[in-house]
Amino acid sequence: MCLRGLDQEQAGLEGLQASQQKTAEQLLANASSQAQRIASGIKALAEPDIREAFAIANRRADAVWQHFDRLIQRHPPALLPIEAPLNLPGPPDHAVR
Asked: Which of 70, 71, 52, 72 is nearest to 60 (CA)?
């Protein structure tokens, strides 16, 4: 969503309940801040040294992920990291929902 889209969303806040409007305003403020950061980053990529550094970092990150994928294929974990907390015992009176 570009900054113009955020302006359009801001205009659509009328008619919301007060709590909804406050939440929507916070979300739109966060989105605006992130959109400005992205725009600044895109503008910075016009600089050849920055663009090259970004490309090098992307290639390196891709190599790391490829290595991680190969490692996982050879030695699959018993649980994915996100699943591990699901298997921890809770307090005795903890009801499963």
From this structure: 52
Residue spans per domain, the chain = 6-10+18-74
What is the SS3 string spanning 41-88?
Answer: HHHHCCCHHHHHHHHHHHHHHHHHHHHHHHHHHHCCCCCCCCCHHHHC
pLDDT value at 2 more than 70:
no
Q: Is the pTM of this model over 0.70?
A: no
The single residue listed with the structure tokens 């663009």 is: 51
CA distance 5 to 27: 13
